Amino acid sequence: MQAIRGMNDILPDAVHWWQMVERTAREVLELYGYREIRTPVVEKLELFARSIGESTDIVEKEMYAFADRKGQWLALRPEATASVVRAFIEHNLQADPLARKFYTIGPMFRHERPQKGRYRQFHQIDAEVFGIDDPLLDAEVMIMLCDFFQRLGLEGVGLHINSLGCPKCRPLFRDDLKQFLHQRASQLCPDCDRRRHVNPLRVFDCKVDRCREALAGAPELVRYLCDECARHFEKVQAYLAGLGVAFTVDPRMVRGLDYYMRTTFEVVTDRLGAQNAVGGGGRYNGLMRDLGGPDLPGIGFAIGMERLILLLQQGHHLAAGSPHVFMAVLGEKPVLEAFRAVQALRGAGIAVEMAYGGGSLKSQMRRADKLAAAHVVILGEEELAKGVAVVRNMKEKSQAEVPLSDLVEFFKGHILAARGQTPGFGPTPSK
Ligand code: ATP
Ligand code: MG
C-alpha cells in the first residue's frame, strides 16, 4: 500500500522543522492578539463554491468534492477562510468583543499536478480578522507576516502588494479589461479565452507564457480606484513605509480567489522555481454578508507550510531532539530502581531514553551514542548495593558516581550550568 500521490508523510526527521515553524507561528500570532480556532476539514461544497467563486481554478478544477452516502455534496477544504467565516457566523462570535482575530493551522486539499512545492494535501498557517476596516490593520497584518518570517530567519523573500478596488470601482476596470482582452483574444490560451468573458481578472493569474505576453499594456487596476479605495491604499503604503517595511506595488497581482477587494498581498521568493508564492492574502469586506452573516469587513492570509519549510531547509540543518540522559542497566536486579530513576528525571522535565531488553554495557553505550545522548547513567548490581549510579558525560568523556537520591538535582543543575547559569540564580534563559 502507498500513500496517495501528492499527499505526503512527514517523517520524524523532518517533523521538528514543522514543530519549530508552528511554535514560532503561535508565538507571533498570539503576540498580535490572534486566538486559535479549529474547524472541520470537510464542509458543504456550496460553502467554497459561494465564497471562493464558481469560476476560479480552485472551484472549477482543484476541489476534492464528493457526495456522501445520503447524496449530500461535500468537499475537503481547499483553504480556511470560508470555514472560519462560517464558524464565526454560525456561533454568533460577533457578540464576543474579544473574538476578532483568529488563526488556524492545518491541512488543505487541492487536486493539482504534484511537483516541488505543490501537493494535493498541503498545510497552511491561516489568519483572519473580522470587523475592522482601518488600513492600519492591513499594514499590521503584513508587518506581522514579515515579523514571523524574520524570526524564522527566512531570507530571499519580498512583499508584493496591490489593491483590487471595490464593487464601486472594479466594474469600470473590468469593462476596460474585457475590451482589451477582446482585442488580444487570438493570443490567449483556451482557458483564458473563456475566462475573459466570465471572469476577466483571472487572466492576470494565468501562468501560460503567451497569456502573460498578451497582457503587455493591459489596463491597471490601481488607476481605476475610487477615492475611498485610493485613500485606503495610500494609507496602507504609508504605514508600511513608516514602519520601515520594504514592499513592491505589483498592479498585476489579482490572487486566485474572487472574494478579495482592496488590499491584496503576496510574499514571494525566487528560490523555489515556479512555486514562487510562500503566502498571500487580502481584504474581503463583502464575504461575510454574502455567506449570510453580518456585514462585517474581513482580512486574512495563508502561508504554505511546505514551501516555507523547503526554503528554511535550504542549506540549513536543524538538530533533532536527543535525550539528555540515556539509562543503561546491567543485570535484572537494578531494572526496577532504574525505571524509577528514569521516571523521576522525566518528572523533572529531563528527556530520558533507556535500553529495553538490557544487553551488554557495550551495546547499550552504542545505542546511547546513536541517540547522541548527552549523558549515560549506568546502574549495575554493585552500584545498586551502594545506592549510587555512574554518570558518564559523553562529550567530556568524564565519569562520576552520583547517589541515586541526588540524580534529579544533579541533572537539573547540570542543565542550568550548560545554559551558562549558576543553578538557582536568575531566570532561565529561553535558549
Ligand atoms: P499558487 O499561485 O502557487 O497556486 P495560490 O494563489 O493558489 O498559490 P493561495 O490559495 O493563496 O495559493 O494559498 C496560500 C499559500 O498556500 C500559497 O502561497 C502557497 O504557499 C500555499 N499553497 C497553495 N496551493 C498549494 C499546493 N497545492 N501545495 C503546496 N502549497 C500550496
Ligand atoms: Mg493555486
What's the SSE blueprint?
Blueprint: H1 12-31, E1 35-36, E2 42-44, H2 45-52, H3 57-62, E3 65-67, E4 73-76, H4 81-90, E5 101-109, E6 121-130, H5 135-151, E7 157-163, H6 170-183, H7 190-198, H8 209-214, H9 227-242, E8 248-249, E9 261-269, E10 277-283, H10 287-290, E11 298-304, H11 305-313, E12 325-329, H12 335-347, E13 352-354, H13 361-370, E14 375-379, H14 381-386, E15 388-393, E16 398-403, H15 407-418
Parallel strand pairs: 1-5, 7-8, 12-13, 12-14
Antiparallel strand pairs: 2-4, 3-4, 5-6, 6-11, 7-9, 9-10, 10-11, 14-15, 15-16
The structure holds adenosine-5'-triphosphate and magnesium ion (MG).
Residues 79, 110, 112, 117-119, 122, 124, 256, 275, 277-280, 302, 304, 306-307 line the site of adenosine-5'-triphosphate (ATP).
Provide the number of structural domains.
2
Name the overall outline: elongated
What gap, in angstroms, lies between the N and C termini? Answer: 42 Å
The helix/strand class is alpha+beta
Q: Catalogue the unreliable spans.
A: 421-431
Total number of strands: 16
Question: What is the CATH architecture descriptor of the largest domain?
Answer: 2-Layer Sandwich
Q: Per DSSP, what share of the residues sits in E-state strands of 2 or more residues?
A: 15-25%
Q: Supply the CATH class of the largest domain.
A: Alpha Beta
Fraction of residues in helix: 25-40%
Tell me about this structure:
There is one protein chain. With 431 residues, the chain is an alpha+beta fold. The chain folds into two domains: 12-169 and 225-315, BirA Bifunctional Protein, domain 2 (2-Layer Sandwich), CATH 3.30.930.10; 323-430, 3-Layer(aba) Sandwich (Rossmann fold), CATH 3.40.50.800. It is built from 15 helices and 16 strands. The strands form three sheets. It has an eight-stranded mixed beta sheet. Strand 12 (325-329), helix 12 and strand 13 (352-354) form a beta-alpha-beta unit. Residues 421-431 have low confidence and may be disordered. Bound molecules: adenosine-5'-triphosphate (ATP) and magnesium ion.
